[in-house]
Structures are given as structure tokens and as C-alpha cells.
Design goal:
There is one protein chain. This protein is of the alpha/beta class. It folds into three domains: about 5-20 and about 140-575, Peptidase S8/S53 domain (Rossmann fold, 3-Layer(aba) Sandwich); about 30-140, Alpha-Beta Plaits (2-Layer Sandwich); about 585-660, Sandwich (Immunoglobulin-like). The strands form eight sheets. Strands 1, 2, 3, 4, 5, 6, 13 and 15 form an eight-stranded antiparallel beta sheet that branches. The chain has a seven-stranded parallel beta sheet with strand order 11-12-10-14-17-18-19, sandwiched between helices. Strands 26-32-31-28 form a four-stranded mixed beta sheet, with no helix packed on it. A hairpin with a 2-residue loop joins strand 29 (about 620-625) and strand 30. Helix 8 (about 320-335) packs parallel to helix 11 (about 370-385). The relative contact order is 0.13.
Length: about 675
């Protein structure tokens, strides 16, 4: 198989795109970063460190005698919070305990990180210790680019959207005739994600944000640019943190590899993976250009979900757990509600000869062995979204892995998250996909080895049966190309989830994240009836041609592909049913002398066409003005008052306004 996208953490992380030769890769760097460890201190020690930091000093000691004795012994040069202070979200950071995690940097010539971690674990004022494990992305093979000449040949359209390449996207609309040759059919009508029916309800709302944790995304791609999230509170200055969230210059997200607001998608060894993933979710629809996407809108203003770029890989540069957890928390704190993760550890049931020993065999081992990672993902699933929005909490979606193993890899295999297996265009499992325990659902991922006999003079084995999406120009001159893997299946699910949240937003319906995740599972298309007999394929067809025929026993996959294949149309129909609750206008918290802005149209159906009247019971506590479609609440005096809002259609809500004296501009103490 052509592309490989895998991550090495101490031993080897699970693949996200299918492997080329299934050969074990040896880490080229240390399994963890030397000279630093990650420590979760007790509350009192953390408070002393924070106090010293607030005084503007470079912190090298904690204020606790036992801790400081060890810091001196190891030659500590700094103690720094893992997650920078963001005043808007600090209260929930403290509530979650993530404020207690620190990076301790020290003289690596004196002791190894592993030894220092053991010594810190013995201290009474330390809760948890972890090394900062190295995460190395390695792959052999790139995406298969779509040439400009092929692009011109493929310029046909489907009625659903004006995008000329939609007819080649069987993963979105499968007519059942994509792969028919010499009487052999390897395509089934509607073996897709059911976009056609879903688009009749929603094509994506621009208030919904999907965080893509991957390589950098080519944010200027003409088929993506309009749907890239922009941090309106930041300015175009890489050296300034205008919004005071702890990250300088984060216009489109953040580059956690290089600790910079500059997103990089064209490093010499970049595969284009992040851009490809982003295109599946939210390439701009109905713009007469390139591809369609699941939740990319309909070409009108306000449609199409947004892609937040959380870059955790760049070229062959290794990243770390530190970069990954910061990206996860950043996503939650800055408005993302879907976490798109085409990465994970290798399956606990993978072939040891091909892949090496699994790092985590059970959920318990993963929680114990990667505690900060676990806490960061839990923060996202709990604190993303809003109690007054379409979704309360966030949904984390992971690739299941491509080791052909009968178990999904962690973290996705944990039952709180969504782990995705990959299918071909006839509902059969892709020959590389993981399946079985830990698998939540399936989605199209491509299967070039299966379509070995569908090649003619205009094609090559690297594109037939794969997923077509956007790519940076340094990878594909046309800006488009093909990839396959569970990391391609994964964004199909992320896109459908985002589309569902968009529809809930438009209906002004409110859901807990767990409720939407359950609906996703309940509305999946059963595919066990396709798991019979043998599936013929040619292993490594893109590299050596169709000379290694093999058979896959489909009976082994019965009941093992999660709930079935994702169904966007049924998912949105369920959201329109009796599930969830009516969205309500939120209670307002504002600082004395401060202001808080609220967009009232977000809480009323067809709210953009309505006008609003706000009445405040005690006008000495707070006031409200309507400015450009926003309600601006001003805190006048400490206290609380009842209030009400009434729309021009007669719909009304009661709410409260609380003004706090010692609070920041957002009303948080």
C-alpha cells in the first residue's frame, strides 16, 4: 500500500494511513525528551510556584523544602506550567486539575529523565510523574497526486453540488457503478456516508469548529481557505498574544511543533496529510471548484464548518506528548467541539513481527502509562462546547489503526471516544483496517489493494479505490490527490459529527456530547450481511503491481466493525426527532465595570431575521444595549438581577445577570 502515517512513542504508535510494507520501524530518536519531565504537584506546591511566577521571577524552586531539595540536586533550571494561563478558561482549568501539571527542566548531564521521574514519584507533594515521551511520525510513501491533466479529464459534476470532482468521490455519494469491470462489481449503491440525504437538512454551519491535530493544513488552498477558522481576537503578528490566551500569533490555530503561530504545511517531508484530512471534512462546497466535502457548506455566507489547525507534526520533526496535550486543551479553550485525531498507538493485538510490542494493551494500562494525555482528552470531552449551545462537551474521534489487527488502538479504543475502522466502496472492510474490540463505527477509508484490477492507461494503483481530497501544491500540482487508511475514515466521522452539530445549531437544539455520540452509533448502517466469503486483493499493489494475490476471510469481521457504517442522513434525522432539549438563553456573568457580548440570534430559530427586547429587573446592577446584532451587557454594581429577552416572533426566555466585583472582563473570579 502506498502511504504510511505512523507515530512512534517509545516503541511504535499505531498507523493512521495504511502501511507500505508492514515492516517495523526503529525509532531514530530517544523514546522521551531528556532534560525534562512532567509533574503533577499538590495544590499547595502549585500555588507557591504560581505565586512566584506572578511576581515575574524565573522559577527554579517551588517553596516546598522536599521538592526544592530534589530540584537543587538535579540542577533544575526552570519549573513551568504545562498549560499557559488563559484568563477566559482558567476557572475550568483549575477545576479539572490541569493547572497542577508542570514541566521541570534540569541538567540532563546529571541524570536521565527516567531516573529523575522515579525520584520525583517518591515525593509526598507529587501526585503523578511522567516523562515527556517523543512522538515521531514516520512514513514511506506519499499521497498519490492528481495530475493537472487528470484533473481536466475528471471535470464532471453531480447535481448535489457544483464541485466538478464530486463524481469521483464515491465516499460521499456512491451510485454503485464506480467500480464495475468485466462483470465484476466492487461497489454498492449507498456504501458511502449518505451525504445526499444529509445535505437536504444541513451542509454545515460556520459556528461549528473542528480541531485537526495533524500535520499543518495548507490554509491558503482555494478549496479550503474560506472554511479555515480565524481567531478574530488575535492580530497578524507572530510576536504578539493579542487575545491573552497564552499563544502568540495564533491566527488559524497554532503550530505546537515549533511553538509558533505560523502554520507550516510545506516542509520538505510533509505528506500533505493534514490538508487531505481537512478537505474531507470541510473543503468549500458548491463553489464550482475541486471537490465536495461532508460539512463544507453550500457556497452561501455562514455555511460550512470551520477547521482549526492544531499542528502536531511537521516534516520528519519529532513532537512530544507535551505538544499534543497542549493542542488538545487549546482546541477546547478556543471553541472546537470535534477533535479530529488520525493518530493513536498500535493495536494491542497487532502482529509483533511486523509492528513490535504494543505499548498499551488495555485501557487501564493506557490511563496509567499516559496520565496527562488522558486528562487532556477528558478536559476536551467535558469542557468543549457550551451548556447553552448545540453541544455540551466535545467529541474526540480517532483512527482505529491499520495493522489488520483484531482490536483498535488506544486512545480511541477507550469507550468514551470514537474509534473508526475503514471500509471499501462495497461495505467490505479495507484489507489493512483494525477491527474488533474498541471499534466504534466504520467509514470509507479506501482500499487500493482490493481494486487491483481496475487500472487503465489513465490511472495508477495509488488512486483507484482511494479517497480524493485536497493537498498542498508541493505534494500535488493540481492541489488534489488520493490517500487511504483509517486516518481517511476518521475525518469522515468527524465531518458527519460536525454536520450533526451544525444541524442542531440551526434547529436550536441542545445535546450532551454523549447523547450525540450515542445517536451516531444508533443510526449506523448495519454491514454484517457483507461479511461473508473471501475477499481477493493484491498486497502492496501500488508498489509491486498485482503479483501477490491474497484472500481476506470476511466472516472474521462479522460483528467486529463497530455499530456499522456511519450514516449522516439518519444521524441528522435523529437530531430532528425528540432527542436533546430546546436551547435556552444563557445566564450572564460580567465584571463590575466590564462588558459581556452575546449574540441573541444563536438561541432562537431563524434568529437572524428577528429583533429582540431585553428587560432587566434591577437596572442599578446591569444594563444592556443592542449593537450590530450583539447584546452588550455592562456590569454596573455587584449583585444579581433577573432579566428577560423577548424576540419579535413572541418567543421569550428568562435569565439572570450576575455582576462580580473582583472578576476579569469575562466575569470569572
Amino acid at each position: 500500500m502506498k502511504s504510511k502515517f505512523l507515530y512512534i512513542v517509545m516503541l511504535l504508535l499505531a498507523v493512521s494511513c495504511s502501511s507500505e510494507f508492514n515492516q517495523p520501524l526503529e525509532p531514530t530518536e530517544a523514546p522521551y525528551v531528556e532534560g525534562e519531565i512532567l509533574v503533577k504537584f499538590s495544590t499547595d506546591v502549585a500555588a507557591m510556584i504560581d505565586q512566584a511566577t506572578a511576581e515575574g521571577t524565573r522559577v527554579t524552586r517551588s517553596g516546598d523544602a522536599d521538592v526544592d531539595g530534589l530540584l537543587a540536586a538535579i540542577g533544575a533550571c526552570s519549573v513551568e506550567r504545562v498549560f499557559p494561563v488563559d484568563s477566559a478558561t482558567e476557572a475550568q482549568t483549575v477545576e479539572s486539575g490541569l493547572n497542577l501539571w508542570y514541566i521541570v527542566r534540569f541538567d540532563s548531564s546529571k541524570s536521565s529523565a527516567e531516573e529523575v521521574a522515579r525520584r520525583f514519584a517518591a515525593l509526598g507533594k507529587v501526585q503523578i510523574v511522567d516523562v515527556n515521551r517523543t512522538i515521531k511520525r514516520a512514513y514511506t510513501g506519499k499521497a498519490t497526486p492528481l495530475s493537472k491533466s487528470r484533473l481536466e479529464q475528471m471535470h464532471t459534476t453531480r447535481a448535489a453540488m457544483s464541485d466538478p470532482l464530486l463524481s469521483e468521490q464515491w465516499n460521499l455519494i456512491n451510485s454503485g457503478d464506480h467500480f464495475t469491470k468485466d462483470g465484476v462489481v466492487k461497489s454498492v449503491k449507498d456504501a458511502d456516508v449518505q451525504c445526499q440525504g444529509a445535505w437536504e437538512r444541513s451542509t454545515g454551519d460556520n459556528s461549528v469548529i473542528v480541531a485537526v491535530l495533524d500535520e499543518g493544513v495548507f490554509v491558503e488552498h482555494p478549496d479550503l481557505a474560506a472554511n479555515i477558522w480565524v481567531n478574530e481576537d488575535e492580530i497578524d503578528d507572530m510576536d504578539t498574544d493579542a487575545d491573552d490566551n497564552g499563544y502568540k500569533g495564533d491566527i488559524y490555530g497554532y503550530n505546537f511543533v515549533h511553538n509558533s503561530g505560523k502554520i507550516v504545511s510545506n516542509a520538505a517531508l510533509d505528506s500533505g496529510h493534514g490538508t487531505h484530512v481537512a478537505g474531507i471534512i470541510a473543503a468549500v462546497n458548491n463553489n464550482g471548484e475541486g471537490i465536495s466535502s461532508i460539512a463544507g457548506g453550500n457556497g452561501s455566507a455562514g455555511s460550512g464548518v470551520k477547521i482549526m489547525v492544531c499542528q502536531i507534526f511537521s516534516g520528519n520533526t519529532a513532537t512530544s506528548i507535551l505538544s499534543t496535550v497542549r493542542a488538545i486543551k487549546y482546541a477546547a479553550d478556543n471553541g472546537a467541539v470535534v477533535l479530529q485525531c488520525s493518530w493513536g498507538y498500535i493495536s494491542p493485538r497487532s502482529n509483533v513481527y511486523d509492528w513490535g510490542e504494543s505499548y498499551f494493551n488495555t485501557k487501564e494500562e493506557w490511563i496509567a502509562g499516559s496520565p496527562l494525555e488522558r486528562e487532556a482528552i477528558e478536559y476536551f470531552t467535558h469542557y468543549a462546547g457550551s451548556p447553552n449551545g448545540a453541544i455540551e462537551g466535545g467529541i474526540a474521534v480517532f483512527a482505529g489503526g491499520n495493522e489488520s489487527a483484531p482490536a483498535a488502538g488506544f486512545p480511541g479504543a477507550a469507550d468514551e471516544y470514537v474509534s473508526v475502522a475503514a471500509t471499501a466502496a462495497d461495505f467490505t472492510p479495507a484489507v489493512y483496517t483494525n477491527y474488533g474490540p474498541g471499534t466504534t463505527i466504520s467509514a470509507p477509508g479506501g482500499d487500493q489493494d482490493y481494486y487491483f484490477d481496475y487500472v487503465d492507461e489513465n490511472h495508477n494503483y495509488g488512486e483507484v479505490g482511494c479517497i480524493l481530497s485536497t493537498l498542498p501544491y508541493h505534494v500535488a500540482e493540481s492541489g488534489y490527490g488520493f490517500m487511504e487508511g483509517t486516518s481517511m475514515a476518521c475525518p469522515h466521522v468527524s465531518g458527519v459529527v460536525a454536520l450533526g452539530i451544525s444541524y442542531a445549531t440551526e434547529l436550536r437544539r441542545h445535546f450532551k456530547a454523549a447523547e450525540l455520540q450515542q445517536l451516531l452509533v444508533e443510526t449506523a448502517v448495519p454491514i454484517d450481511s457483507y461479511m461473508t466469503g473471501k475477499k481477493e486483493y493484491c498486497r502492496y499493489v501500488a508498489d509491486i503491481g498485482p503479483i501477490q494475490p491474497m484472500l481476506l476471510n470476511l466472516n472474521d469481521f462479522r460483528g467486529q466493525m463497530g455499530a456499522g457504517q456511519i450514516n449522516a442522513a439518519a444521524f441528522l434525522a435523529a437530531i430532528a426527532g425528540d432527542a436533546g432539549a430546546e436551547m435556552v438563553f444563557p445566564n450572564i456573568y460580567v465584571a463590575k465595570g466590564g462588558k459581556t457580548a452575546v449574540v441573541p440570534s444563536r438561541y432562537f430559530v431563524d434568529g437572524q431575521s428577528l429583533t429582540y427586547t431585553v428587560t432587566i429587573e434591577d437596572s442599578s446592577v446591569a444594563s444592556c444595549e443592542n449593537e450590530g446584532g450583539k447584546l452588550i451587557f455592562s456590569g454596573l454594581e455587584s449583585g444579581s438581577t433577573k432579566a428577560a429577552i423577548k424576540a419579535s416572533n413572541g418567543k421569550s426566555f428568562e435569565f439572570s445577570i450576575t455582576v462580580r466585583r473582583d472578576a476579569n472582563s469575562n466575569g470569572w473570579l
